[in-house]
Amino acid sequence: MVADAADGWFARNTSHWDDWSLDELVAAKGSQRVSLVVPARNEAGTVGDVVTRVREALVDTVALVDEVVVIDSDSTDATYDVASDAGAVVHRSAEVRPDLGSRPGKGEAMWKSLFVTSGDVLVFMDADLTEWDTHFVPGLLGPLLTRPDVALVKGFYERPGAAGPYDGGRVTELVARPLIALEHPELAGLVQPLAGEWAVRRSLFEALSVPVGYAVELAALIDTAASLGVDAIAQVDLGRRDHSHQALLDLGAMATQILAAMASRRATPAGFETVAARPPQPAGSVSRGEVVLRQYQPGPGGITPVDREVLTFERPPARSVA
Ligand SMILES: O=c1ccn([C@@H]2O[C@H](COP(=O)(O)OP(=O)(O)O[C@H]3O[C@H](CO)[C@@H](O)[C@H](O)[C@H]3O)[C@@H](O)[C@H]2O)c(=O)[nH]1
Ligand SMILES: O=C(O)[C@H](O)COP(=O)(O)O
Predict the structure, then answer these.
(1) pTM above 0.90, yes or no
(2) How does pLDDT run along the chain (322 residues), one tens digit per residue?
(3) Whose alpha carbon is nearest atom 3 of ligand 1?
(4) Which amino acid residue places its CA nearest to atom 5 of ligand 2?
(5) Could you tell me whether strands 233-240 and 14-16 are parallel, antiparallel, or unpaired per DSSP bridges?
């Protein structure tokens, strides 16, 4: 039954990036504006390439992307200057709407982007890409610009170096996919639910509660399916993609954030009304907005506990913020 539903969704909503020509997409775009948003924390080595290549291919040569915006997420390296020199509009996450305060995290950077971009459609792309191409952006725009019923588009790709070409990463396979199997089988047709390359209509993203950390992707999928139905989500095969990989213990923090966002949604099922009503700090054991993740490392006196504060705080829907 679940398999049939996932197969049906997959057949209806899966495309390949070259299913549309650039000319078709520019025509379908019409008067809508498109913003590319790149959240970046300490990505001075790669963010320049991402910005330069997208700008040359999709801003200067064809008018598909109207602005390339990098949200510098508390970087301590030269990310701001490199992105700026490459031609992006760069904002420091902490300096966007300072009246709203600042939290560390990728989701925070993406939420803050809503206050400094003008796109009717936002395309998100990671800044740490090492193998990728500019067709990622038109690929993600294809379903959004040609299907009014679609509000969110996820990328998926072949991952060189992974055990199997379509394996997700470690958190995808060990946390996200099992959670989907247990609690959100309606999302089982997504090949890479945690992909950082995705596109969304502003009207949807500004109506969603946004976890400040790495749970932003899974939360957006769950809340979109709950609010608009799973057929408002589509996915696109983007070809090959590689990126820099985090250490296992850092991924423990990512997994904790994802599990916390799921727990919060279990307590308050999503839907536009309930999403809007959900307090920024969810009820239950994660209500403090952060949890302590104890991990162990070798130390001078033997095995040493290391406590890591993991932020599970969520931002309310941006449209509810004055
Ligand atoms: O506090 C942060 C942390 C990361 N990033 C940026 O977010 C992007 C992705 O971060 P990364 O640490 O490379 O994530 P991954 O380990 O690759 O995690 C995968 O899975 C995550 C959970 O769904 C997604 O958010 C990521 O986009 C996806 O690539 C990069 O541009 C980072 O610079 C920020 O802007 N702020
Ligand atoms: O997407 C994921 O599951 C995490 O980002 C980890 O990916 P990796 O195992 O490829 O580093």
Answers:
(1) yes
(2) 678 888 999 999 999 999 999 999 999 999 999 999 999 999 999 999 999 999 999 999 999 999 999 999 999 999 999 999 999 999 999 999 999 999 999 999 999 999 999 999 999 999 999 999 999 999 999 999 999 999 999 999 998 877 777 888 999 999 999 999 999 999 999 999 999 999 999 999 999 999 999 999 999 999 999 999 999 999 999 999 988 899 999 999 999 999 999 999 988 765 444 444 444 444 333 345 899 999 999 999 999 999 999 999 999 999 999 8
(3) 106
(4) 169
(5) parallel
- Nearest protein CA to atom 6 of ligand 2, as residue: 169
Output the ligand 1 site: residues, CB below 6 A: 39-41, 43, 73, 104-106, 109, 126-128, 194, 196, 214, 217, 243, 246, 254
The answer to whether residue 198 is domain-embedded is: yes
- In angstroms, the CA 88 to CA 114 distance is 16
Question: How large is the ipTM?
Answer: 0.98
CATH number, domain at 170?
A: 3.90.550.10
Q: Between vectors from CA 41 to CA 36 and to CA 44, what angle results, nearest 5°? A: 85
Residue 313 lies in a domain: no
Residue 322 lies in a domain: no
168 lines ligand 2 (CB under 6 A): yes
Tell me the C-alpha distance between 184 and 221, whole Å.
10
Going by C-alpha positions, the residue among 36, 38, 19 that lies closest to residue 28 is 19
Question: Is 312 part of a structural domain of the chain?
Answer: no
Measure CA 188 to chain center.
18
Domain range for 95 is: 2-251
- The count of domains in the chain is 1
Please compute Rg for the chain using Cα positions: 19
The closest residue, in CA terms, to atom 1 on ligand 1 is 105
